[in-house]
User: What shape does this take?
Amino acid sequence: MQFTKRNYLFARGWKSAAPIILLLPGFILYLVIAVGPSMATAVYSFTDATGIRGIAINWVGFENYDEFLFRGAASRDNIAALTRTLYFCFFVTTIQFVLGLLLAVLLNSKLKGTTFFRTLFFMPVILGVAIQGLIWKLFLLPRGGPAAELFSLFGTTSEFLGGQPKQAFAWVIVVQIWSNVGITMVIFLAGMQTIPDYLYEAAKIDGANGWQLFRNVTWPLLTPAANTNFLLNIIGSLQAWQLFLVLIGYRPGTQVLGYLVFAEGFGQTSGSVMTAFRQGYAAAASIALFMLVLLIALSANFIVSRREKKYML
Amino acid sequence: MKRPIMWRLLTVLFALGLVAAACGNDDDAPAAPSVDDSSPATAEAADDSAAPAPEPEPTEAPPEDVTLRVLVHQNPPMVEFMESFNDSFEAANPHISIDMSVVEAGDLSISTQTRLSASDVDVIDIFGFANAAQPYMSDVTPPNWQTLIEAGLLMDLTGQPFVDLYDAPTIADAGSFNGRVYAINLGRVSYSGMFLNLDLFEATGVDVPTTWSELVAACDAFVAAGNSCMTAGGGDGWPIFVGAYGLLGAMYPDQAALVEGLWTGDITWDDEHSVEMFRRMQIYATEMLEDGVTGLSHDAAPSRFAAGDVAMMPTGVWQAPALDAAGVEFDWTYIPFPGSDNPEDNQYLFGKYDQGWAIAADTPHPEAALAYLAAFSEPSNYEAFANAVGFIPTQPTAALNTKLGAEVAPYLANYRVGFEQYWVQPTGAGQWANGSQAAAWFDPFNEWTDPVALAEQAQSDLQAGLDASS
Assistant: This one.
C-alpha cells in the first residue's frame, strides 16, 4: 500500500486539528498536575508561604535561598545534606545498576527456577515504602533480630538503623537497592530478550567465550536498557527520602535533601513539639534539589546519548 | 469510514468533557446538612459564638442529621476512651454521628493543617500551646498553633461555659492567645521522671536513688547482679533525649530561665555547669541504658520493662496505662530523675500540656461541635478520661484515681513546664544547637563520644544562629 497524504487519518482541513484536540485533555492534565505545581514551587520559593489558608504570602526575593545556602550553621547542615544526597545517589546507582545487570544475566540463562527468582527479586518493588521499612526494621532489630543473630555468629554486634549515622545511612542504601533492584533487573531482562539468538550463535561459531559474548554482543545491544536504568537510578536516588523517614526519622547526620524539603515544609516533629511550616523555604530547598537532579540528569543523558549513538547507529 | 470514527472520538471526548465539568464545580451543590444552617461558620460567627449557644425553641423542627468530623492522634488508651465516649454521645444526641480519624502523633500537625485548610474537619486534637516567641527572641518563626489562630482557622471559645470547668492557669497557658481562648487543654503530663521496678530494687538490695551519685551506684549494682539498669524506646530517637529531660531539669530547675539565658548569652552550652550536664547525659546514654535499645520502639518499651529484669524506665507518665496493659506483675513507682547531687534539685517534675480540643472556625456544625466539647467536659466524663489516659487533670474537681495518680501526687506541687515547651531555635542555628537533646547524640545513638567537644559544638551551632538572627 502506498502512503499518500490522502491516506492519513487527519490530513486536510479541520481534520488536521483533530490530533491537537485529542491531545488537549492529556496536555491540560499534564499542565495542571505536573507543570503547574512545578512552576508554583519556583514562585513559592521567593515567598514566606506557610501553606496555611488565610495567612498572607509575602514576596521575600532570594531570602530563602540566602538562608538555605549561606545563613548560619544551618547552611552548613544543608550543604552536608546535599553532599550526602550525592553519596546516596552514587552508591545506589552504581550498586543497583551492577546488581540488576548481574541478576538479569543469571535469570536470562536457561537455569531451572528462573521464573520463581524473577518474581522473588521483583516482589519488593510492589511493596509500599512503609511495608518495606517495617520489614527491614524488624530484620535489623539489634536485640534478637535475625540480622543481629547472624552477626553474632561472627562474634560481632551492630546497632544497625539506630546507631552511628554513617552505619544507619549505609543500611538505608541497602534497603533502597533491595527495594528497587527488581525494576533494574526487569528492564535489563526486557532488553536482553530483544537480542536475536543468531547473533550469539554467530559469535559462538567465531569462537567467542562467555565473557566475549557478553562484552561484544549483550552489552552493546543492551545500550538502550542500560541508559534507561542509569537515568532512572540517578533520578530515583536523588529524590529518595521516604525510606529515611520510615527507617531512621529526622536525626542529625542522616538527612538527605529530599527529607530536608519534607521536614521544613511540613514541620519537623520532636516529641510533641511541632515546628512551623515553612513551605516557602522548603520550596527553595526543593528548587535546589531540582537543579541538582537536572544538572546530573542532563550530564548523564549527554553521556548515554553519545554511547547510544556509538552502538546503535 | 474516517468521518464516523472522527465523530465518535469527538463525541466521546465531548461527553468526557461534560462529565469533567459536572464533577469540577460543586459550588451549586446543596450544603451539607447542619444542626443550624442559620449559623454560618465564619470567623465572625466564631466571635459571636463566644456567647453560650441559645437553647433551641421547643416548637422548632427536629434537628437535621449531622456528622461531626473529629481528628485525634494515636494514643491507644485515649482512642479507646474516645470510642466509648462517642458511642454514648451519639446515643444522647441521635441526630449527631461522630466520624473520628486517628493519625500518628507525628502526623497530627500535617493532618490538622491540611484538613483545616480544606474545611474537612470540625473538632481537632491540639497539643497545649507552647514555644511562643518571647521578647528576648528575634527573627523567629511563630509556632504552628499561633499561625492557625492568626489565619482564623480556630474558633474563639472565649465565654463558652465548659471553658470555666478547667483551671484558669491552664486555659491561659495552654489554650489562649492575645486574651482569647482557642483550645481547652485536657491534661498535663510529666516527661522528666522514671518508672522504678521496686521489687527489683528490693531483691538487689538497692535503695531508691535521690541523687546522681546514688543513681550511678544503683546502676552498677543492677548490672553486677545480671540485670539491666534502664531501658527506653531508642528506636524512635526522641525517647532517648526525653528520658534525659529530668537530668536537664535537675541541672537547670528554672527551664524558662535556661532558655532565656541561652538566647541572651548568660548561659552557654559549653560553660562548666553545662559541660557537667553533657557528661552525665553521656553516662546515661552509654552506660545506664541497656544494650539494644537503639532498636526498641517507644511503644514496645513498656513491654520490655514489664519483663522484670530492668530496674528503671525514664519516660513520660503517659506510659503508665501501657504498663498496665503489658501486665506488670511487680510493684512500681514514678519518681523525678535524680540528675543532681543536690537532692533539693531533684524534687521537680517537668512536663507539658498535652492533648486539647479546638474547633474549626468554619465548621458547618458549630452547635454540634460545641455540644461535643461541652459533653466531654462534664466533670464525670473528664475525670474518666484523665484516669484512662493518665493525664494530670486540668479540671480542679477531677482526681487521678489510679496508681500513677497516687505515685505522682507528692510531686505535683513541684510540677513545672519543661524546656521543650519554651525552646525556640534561632533561625540559622545548626543541628546541634538544641543541647537538651544531647543524650541522643552520644554513642551508640550518634557519633559523639566526647562531651566537651559536643558541648562546644552545641554552643557554636547555637551562636551561629544567634549571630544570624541579630
